[in-house]
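Researcher: Next sequence.
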Amino acid sequence: MRILLDMVMNHTSIEHPWFQESRSSRDNPKRDWYIWRDGSGESPPNNWKALPGGSGWNYDVITDQWYYASFLSFQPDLNYRNPTVKEAMFDVVRHWLDKGVDGFRLDIFFSIYKDEAFRDNPFSFKPFPTDFTGGWFQNLKYTVHQKETFELAKELRSLVDTYSPDRLLLGELFGEDTTIKKYMGDQLDGLNLIFLWELLKLKVDARFLRNVISHYEIHYPAPYTPVYVFGNHDQKRMISKIGNDSRLAKLLALFQYTVRGVPVTYYGEEIGMEDVDFPAKTALDPMGRRFCWIPGFLVNMLDLYINRDGCRTPMQWDNSVNAGFCGKSATPWLSIHQNYQSTNVKQQLGDAKSLLNVYKGLLRLRRESAAIREGNIQLIDNPDTEKNLLSYRRISNDEAALVLINFGETSVAFKNQTECKQFLFGIGIDKPNNPGKISLPPYSGVILGN
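Model: Next structure:
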């Protein structure tokens, strides 16, 4: 096992000693460790919005100035145009690398630098920040994706590359594909990997998933490596998006772990943990509290995810009190889904056909198969069954694997003209009697090797 640390480089808490010093007076040595500006009368310095909405500027009565926060008011942004700040944060990175962490997940990396001239962001017709490149009727031209942030990615990579064994930088950011690739560097000398988000608007049919593969292969061909992810701590849980259907969840795992790329599984996906429907008015999530006034019908109509408490409930380890997450006398931060007695790790470990054991089997196969782990991918056209049948080959030198997934309610026949005839893995299907002509039952998938 290796461990990546979640590293937030953009901001600190208002309780952090750095900010406490910074806000104490205008001439404090750490004043310019954060972004402070005079306002225009009672108005903020410019029109920059915070990503969750509202002005990003926050008035501080102590020194009669405004500080900027890209997210929430208690998360003031650091000023990376001060080289002392950058070096201090690099020292934090070194601290954890020296302790042996294997790399970092870089939280909202694209917002670290802002426009040096503090120019107003231009108008946009986009009402909501679905991809954090625009929203609240504003194009975030001067608050995200600054050229200095692309360079910061390379500087950070140079730092971690001084450590052995190799360390990993996995970036969380949003934007157009051409912009995202700038963080990875023209010579692949930036961030190693970046989360890609095409699967967040998930449709469980072969045509949609084939289009996702094609999109990633066009924009992130080898030696780039796409990252396949269904959700995270800001999104409705994957199985709740697909009607809590474990058959589909197993097939999506088969897809995610056999395409060319790096699969990232959000905790609980491997056992089918569902979203908890918490009312926004009682949210612990600051975002949920901020937008609790939006009527539920409008939230559903616009497909918004307001209260993120629902996807952040404790891991369901077993059927004991508090699902084994904490002791009986403790109270978890969020209440546990009521289905924990039937949906938990312990129960699924004992069920050979459980969703958890599908994940375990796929992980085992990835370790054993170079073709699936690192091979090229070739989509196979199926014009007669393209909505339901997804098929592709993975190839690494002399090793090949064929992946067939039937997302439909009826059986599908596949004439296997490839060299892959050896049964490696199946979901809802046993070893085919005739590997040259395979009949896939409804909601089934198979992997064959050469």
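Model: The chain is about 25% helix and 15% strand. Residues 81-349 form a domain with the TIM Barrel fold (CATH 3.20.20.80).
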